[in-house]
């Protein structure tokens, strides 16, 4: 960390990459490999993921970032007139610069429950999309785990969403930008195999869990996977040096590194959240992964912003602010304690 700089709890990708990935990139640098993801490192990563999900037939592709992963997953699975259902808080709705709409696919929104889609919400959106002729036709449901507010789907909730999707002939896409944090949460009751079995397409986030760049898209149906590289190439997402992402995922899935990193980020968030609750502050959303949503008065926020960077998530009607400190694979517990100590000292003065 730069001397004198604010410590950032703004996101979980402020740091570069885990040292093991730097070492792997350097060690393999001069090895000559095939391009476009056909290298041995990408294949090692695919094998590791297939072993975790228990599906040798799964088709796995590596791309640069989360918006691209969502755009590619949606555009490759939908016909031009088809639409995707999401909660109003879904990442594709307000935080991806209209990327999905730019492909010609409408997003049909419904309010969620604790950031999550329910079977009732999915059914309601589907009915609205088919009420009149020539409305955009719902064909996919978009969810995230962890959600945009850090909450988790349990297995019964995901199974219910999968069941209504099957009944209504809808595809189910799971955004896994923080899937590692979800799967290592103390509240989690699912495995990566459950995610694969209950969805049609999902992706595993590397960017927010120690990778320099990269996400791994997992496609279940061969009919969609067969032409996926063409979609990637057409949209500028197929790297000639695909090895650069492959080696990162190969490294992350060795010796449980991927999940060790998210356990660390979750533990840091849990400590931060518990300390704030002990001091009498209210959580705007339950802390279930590595995002903490706390309600603070503006004067406290101003004081904390002198030494820490974090996101102001929402302005409440009473003037209070919802702040979102996020912890990462590299978060220092000493900085968590400093943040909490600063809150405690302000509380005593006030």
Describe the structure in your own words.
With 350 residues, this protein is of the alpha/beta class. Helices cover 42% and strands 17% of the residues. The chain is built from 15 helices and 13 strands. The protein has helices at residues 19-27, 40-53, 66-77, 91-94, 99-102, 119-129, 155-168, 179-183, 192-198, 222-225, 228-234, 243-252, 257-278, 298-304, 333-349; strands at residues 7-8, 59-63, 82-87, 107-110, 137-144, 171-175, 201-205, 215-219, 283-285, 293-296, 308-309, 311-315, 321-324. The strands form 3 sheets. A 7-stranded mixed β-sheet has the order 2-8-7-6-5-3-4, with helices on both faces. Strands 9-10-13-12 form a 4-stranded antiparallel β-sheet. It has a two-stranded parallel ribbon with strand order 1-11. It is globular and about 65 Å long. The mean pLDDT is 97.
